[in-house]
Amino acid sequence: MSFTPSTPLIVVVSALGAQGASVVSAYLQSSDYQIRALTSDPSCDAAVRLAAKNSRVTVVGVDLSSLESVVAAFHGASFIFAQTVFRPDTFASQGPAAAQALEARHGLNIAEAASKIPSLQHLIWSTLPDAFGVSQGKYNIPHFQAKIPAEQYLRNPDNGLADKTTYLHVGLYGSNAERWPYLPVYVKGAQKYVITLPCSPNALIPFVGDESVNVGLIVQAILSQPEKTLGKSVLGASEYLSCTDWALALSKALKDNVTFAETTLESYEAVWGIAGTEVGLMFRYFNEVQRDAISVPAIITPAELGVQESLRSTEQRLQGMDWRDILIQTS
Fold first, then answer.
1. SS3 287
2. C-alpha–C-alpha distance, residues 56 and 58, integer Å
3. Is the peptide bond before 129 cis (omega within 30 degrees of 0)?
4. Which range is the signal sequence, renumbered to this chain (predicted)?
């Protein structure tokens, strides 16, 4: 297929990550778009495989710490899907404040670069709740707050993007249970698996479900209905699950008994260190604010965009995972 200058270009930031890969996969199903997939390492195996997959995908290297690099990567974009990453290497070596500052800088470079692209019609910013603001300073969750400076820039009418942006609030990935500290641990004495979090069994947690599919479907729905979504926030979740429901979904996937056990934040931190503080505060926030303040007022749901029935649930994601290999980590 040949492309004309009028063929719309969608640029996907962090295209090799879970969210970005889902967006690229969704748009590969349509022949109406060019796709520019951005990554920090275009020579890695995953980038090479993606570039070879389809002639409509161009893989481009970008340095999110350089405004000039991001502007060049966005050149000619009609649509942009942007997500930043709370880098685990920075978190481990320098701590949460450094990881937050780095991600915030990347986000601000993305926002400022987007403001310099005259061809841009619609930007989707993958964000998280302003937990610090919602909780009036009680919950400072670095990987949440790292997203907020860019969102504030985008919402400011003086920067020219307030009416070109949608804010996508993506819930927990369905696959999170395959990694620490969410991974179920087998307790021999009780003859069952246990997941432990500093959260009430009944607290409602937003899950995106199968992140490999659902993020792309929701992004397509957002971009195809700008009259509903420009300037608005969209819920990137297939469902709300309690911790008890999550354990039940895991039981079905593992074909074994999984129980949820509530713990204190202090005990969780004692086990997991700074990672326990980061994850534990997130679940305490969910526990306290519940559904009404998880995101923002008047958030648009997938049902309102007509894609709810197409989304794959957390249970479906869990059942598609190779638990025999995953659980080797706990043996």
1. helix
2. 7
3. no
4. 1-20
